[in-house]
Design a protein that fits this description.
This protein is of the alpha/beta class. The protein is built from 8 helices and 6 strands. The chain has a 6-stranded mixed β-sheet with strand order 3-2-1-4-6-5, sandwiched between helices. The structure holds adenosine-5'-triphosphate. Keywords: ATP-binding, Nucleotide-binding, Transferase.
């Protein structure tokens, strides 16, 4: 077991009050390295005498186009770790309105909607996603560069209009730490490789951040810390 990842997840749970006693958590599992790593560590806690009692149930959304993820491998992995799984078929392509082009935003919003539906039907009050620290940083830079706003994906997001809360247990874990763990565990690194990939802006931001942290890894930590540490006195006030 990777103690560092486990510690970082414990820190996130504590710092953001991410998991509470009695929670029933739907684990959104794509079959990729991030969500399987998340499922592995949460299962260790849910199935042991961890100080917070909670239940987990993995959910995989199977779309109507091939995304090249090796399904049999990840289903077996979850079984071996004692994690129950529900697979839901969602015709993402078929649901597209005539004349509309397929894109990542449409796909992820359809998946998100089905995850919420599953959670509410099965009594889950939380949905866990496999986003990690680098995803959160990239989103922060993308939102500044392309939307002109300072915002990002939150470690814990309570919806106003729904009973569910989104959580991101890997919020303090770096992607390279997940890659190392996934290699040790034999978890496939394949993620979505559909032909509709429109994630080039995210990739651009990733290389900008990697460039900044290339010579000094603590820069990545500081960039993340800065998002948690605004100094209002030295921010430009619009009023
Ligand atoms: N088909 C799916 N079914 C269930 N959950 C999904 C699915 N695809 C993505 N997710 C959830 O959304 C998160 C972000 O999805 P994204 O497509 O960005 O994957 P990723 O960052 O490559 O992560 P992973 O390595 O888990 O695939 C995933 O970590 C997972 O929790």
């Amino acid at each position: 077991m990777d103690k560092h990842i486990d510690r970082k997840i414990n820190q996130a749970i504590l710092r953001y009050k991410m998991i509470e006693p009695g929670d029933k958590i739907a684990l959104a599992v794509s079959g990729g390295k991030d969500s399987l790593t998340m499922a592995y560590f949460l299962a260790l806690k849910a199935n042991s005498d961890y100080h917070i009692n909670f239940d987990i149930h993995a959910v995989h959304i199977r779309t109507d186009f091939d995304n090249s993820v090796d399904k049999s491998g990840f289903e077996q992995f979850l079984k071996d770790e004692g994690i129950p799984l529900t697979v839901i078929d969602v015709p993402v392509l078929k649901r597209l309105k005539p004349g509309r082009k397929m894109n990542c935003y449409w796909c992820s919003s359809q998946r998100r909607m089905e995850l919420m539906k599953f959670a509410s039907q099965s009594g889950c009050n939380k949905i866990a996603l496999g986003h990690h620290m680098d995803d959160i940083l990239e989103t922060f830079f993308m939102n500044m560069a392309y939307k002109g706003e300072m915002s990002t994906m939150l470690p814990v997001l309570k919806f106003d209009n729904y009973d569910q809360t989104l959580i991101r247990p890997l919020a303090l874990v770096k992607e390279k730490e997940i890659i190392r763990f996934a290699e040790e565990k034999g978890i496939s690194r394949i993620t979505c490789t559909c032909n509709f990939d429109t994630q080039s802006k995210r990739k651009e931001m990733r290389s900008v951040i990697n460039f900044m942290a290339e010579k000094d890894e603590s820069i990545r930590d500081n960039l993340f810390k800065a998002m948690n540490n605004p100094v209002p006195r030295y921010m430009i006030n619009q009023e």
